[in-house]
Every structure is written in C-alpha cells, then in structure tokens.
Amino acid sequence: MDTQLRSPEPPIRPEGFGAACRDAWLLDPDIAFLNHGSFGAVPRVVLDVQDDWRRRIERRPVELMDRRMPELLGVSLDAAAGFVGADPAGTAFMVNATAAVNAVARSLSFAPGDAVATSSHVYNAIRKALQWTAARDGADYVEFDLALPIRSEDDLLERLLASIPPATRLLVIDQVSSPTGLVFPIERLLAELAPRGVRVMIDAAHAPGMLDVDVRRYFDLGAIAWTGNLHKWCFAPKGTAVLMVHPDLADRVQPTIISHHSDDPFRKRFSWQGTADFTPWLSVPEALAFGERRFGWDRLRAANHALAAWAHRCLVEHWGVEPVSPLEGDLLGSIATVRLPESACAAFDDPMALQLALYDRHRIEVPVMDWGGSWFVRVSAQAYNEPEQYLALAEAVHAL
Length: 400
What we know:
single chain; alpha/beta; Aspartate Aminotransferase, domain 1; Aspartate Aminotransferase, domain 2; seven-stranded mixed β-sheet; three-stranded antiparallel β-sheet; disordered N terminus
C-alpha cells in the first residue's frame, strides 16, 4: 500500500523541529515515541539541572532541605504561577494533578442529595477520587455521558450544560480530556455555570504547555480551583504539578498529608508534606526556560497542534474510521484520539496486547485504550516528532 498517495499533505515542520532537535532528549532513536502525553520526556538540560540540585542538596542536606527550601521553592512557584497566569500566593506544587484534585475534593464537605459530578471523559484516577469523596459524605457521584463523536465546540457545550445535574455541588471537568484528547470550552462553560452556583474545579492535567492558560481569568469566571501537570507538556521532571485555588477557598483546602504548616497560609501549608525529593520542583524554571529558549512557547504550541491535527486526519483516512471530532477546528490541542479499525482489534484479547504488539513488532510507543466499548489509539505531537512516524503507525495497524 502506498501511504504517501493516500495521506493528506503533512504540515511543514518549523526550522529546528523534528529530527533537528531530537538529540535534546534521551529518547531511544529506534522507537517512534508518540506518547509524550503520558509522562512527557525531559530534555537533557533539565535533567542536568535536576542532577545539579541533587548534588547541592547532598553537599548541604540540612541547610537546603530545612532552612532554605521554602526560599528555593518560592522561585519555582513564582515561575510556574507566571507561566499559567495565576496568583503566586495561591499556587502550590503537587506530585500530579490527581493529588491536587484529591486535596480540593477531600477538603470540601457534601450532604446526602448533593451531586459530585464529572463527565465520562474523566481520567480514571479522578473518577476513583470523586467516588470515594461522595461516598464519604453520603452524596451522589454522577458521571454523565458525553458520547463520541463530538460534532463541534457548540455541540460539546450544549451537551455539557444539559447533562450537569441541578444538585451538583462540585463539578470536576477536564480542560483537555486525557482519554479523548478533546479541548473543552472551559471559559464558555464557566460563564454559563456561574448563575447556577456550581463549584467548578478544572482538571487541566494536559493544558500547561499545550494551551495558552489564564488561571486568573478562570477564577474571575467562577472556577474554584485549577490543576495542571508540568511533567507532560512543560518539560519538567516527573512528579511536578501545580494546584491553584481561588482566594475565597485558600483557607479551607488542605493537602492530603497534614503536616507542620497546616495553620499557615496556603503556599506554606503545601510546601512541606514530609521529606521528599524536591529536585523536580526546583527544576521548573529551567524546564519553562528551555521551552521558550529552544522553540518559543507560542511557536511550539502552534507546531504541535498542526502536527496533531494532521495526524488525526491521516489516521482517520488511512483506517476508514469515524473521527471523534471534526477534522478541522479547535477541539484538538497536541494530542488526538483515533478509533482503531475493527479488523486490527480482532486478533487481540485486550487493548494492552495490541499496544505491546505495536511496540514489540514495530517499535512504536503509543497508548491503546478501551473507551465506551471501542478501542482507540491516542497520539501525541511534540517538537521531536515527524510526520513519518504517524504514517508508520498507520501501516503498522494494517499489518497487525
């Protein structure tokens, strides 16, 4: 099969992207890594900074861990808050977005008849946290269905507004859905929900570095909290996320591990939850600087979106499947989820077996998932990716 004849014209990768920048990472050149969205890949220069922090801490453990850590983390928190347009005083580091959602949800209280709600696009770990929180207080966990395909942003917004239960006291909603890759119309949703008095927390695990984020704007529109991972699209080491809470909520939210500073202001309260490796958080300024210095964040977001949108169209047309969203438009960021053809799934017992076959036989790292009874692949687009890698995926699925 001649894939080149059947493929839409690939986007022109900007200068310095693709193979030209791949050596900035430690990624194995023999693997087509199409899964930046799971954990990211940390640039060499950021790893060097992290290693330097480790050495500095080991030279003077008590000085840096005990006396100076609040000061050192403050520099990183200021950088992170500035990057996403948030108030530094209401910003805290977390190990991931799931920990942040746990902190907020478990700090709130509910009553029988209240609804703790989210959509069917929720990340499973968040689902589990919300189910536990609702059960603790005798409230109802409500997961409303937003079936695929999504026809447009208006379609998604209308279905969201029609699905949120009137008794909702907390809505946790994705900014970018992890399983489906869809970008939710957060600002329009918040504006519509404000008159209803629904408390909204935004799970933005994928948003920083993928979208142009403005947390202050979300709070002005009524959101009570926002969390995003920096170890996905922002090049930070694994275990780096941020939590921002609205000033009206700052005195109420506690970390899931209550420690020495539980009576202090929000930022200090979250700064110490026990002895930990703080080097991922200390490396945040370099991670953000790398993105700007090497590519420019606006340029990087635009290039990644163009490649993801092209990969979405390419795979849909190669496999002859229905797209989960329009092939054009703003419902995609830097990841795209594509339904697999039934012929490719028939030989495998479960999605993981198919994922491992792609890896073992074709050296392609891409997640395969069961969502709503169908199997999908989710491809990511990062600076080091090339169109040829998605064409290889298209052919590999046909060859399974």
